[in-house]
Write a structure and sequence with these properties.
Nucleotidyltransferase, domain 5; five-stranded mixed beta sheet; alpha/beta; two-stranded antiparallel ribbon; 14% strand
């Protein structure tokens, strides 16, 4: 804590100074900056390891997830094959045995009834299959002109309108 010189008429010899001394703070911050600048590249580099070669190692084949598709006319597909609504649960459980993870992807057509998609999700959730992901299309839709008569062209003036002088 810093102290100031005694003031005239003060009751004590030294008065406490309420200002912070910035110089030590800046010194500490610069030292910390230098320490982090030196240690950061060492942390990112890691350790070099010379791995042994193996002749019997075979890379694992990634397995496709279970995808349930619902068309606008009510047709349900599981991984591309048509399935009756009553057999969806059994088919999905059989496919999950072969899949890597237990996440089920649901793709519903834009014009499919929302209630049908919720029924499928409810059927899965009530039977313990709660890891459900709803897929969407992130591509921008192509602009197609609406059928019908074309709108008349808007006339644009070729010369700007005259302006009144400012007084």
């Amino acid at each position: 804590m810093a102290f100031t010189a005694p003031k005239k008429g003060g009751s004590s010899l030294y008065q406490p100074l309420a200002d912070i001394n910035v110089t030590p703070l800046v010194d500490v911050m610069l030292v910390l900056l230098i320490v982090f600048m030196i240690t950061a590249p060492m942390l990112a580099a890691g350790m070099k390891v010379n791995l042994p070669q193996s002749k019997a190692a075979v890379p694992l084949k990634p397995k496709a997830p279970v995808v349930i598709s619902l068309a606008k006319d009510g047709v349900i597909q599981v991984n591309g094959s048509d399935v009756a609504k009553e057999l969806v649960l059994d088919t999905v459980k059989a496919k999950l045995v072969l899949a890597d993870d237990d996440v089920i992807h649901i793709r519903g057509d834009r014009e499919a009834p929302y209630g049908s998609i919720v029924e499928i999700m409810d059927l899965l959730a009530t039977n313990g299959l709660v890891k459900i992901a709803i897929l969407g299309d992130n591509r921008k839709p192509t602009a197609t002109p609406a059928p019908g008569p074309a709108a008349p062209p808007v006339a644009t003036p070729t010369t700007p309108p005259a302006r009144e002088p400012i007084p």
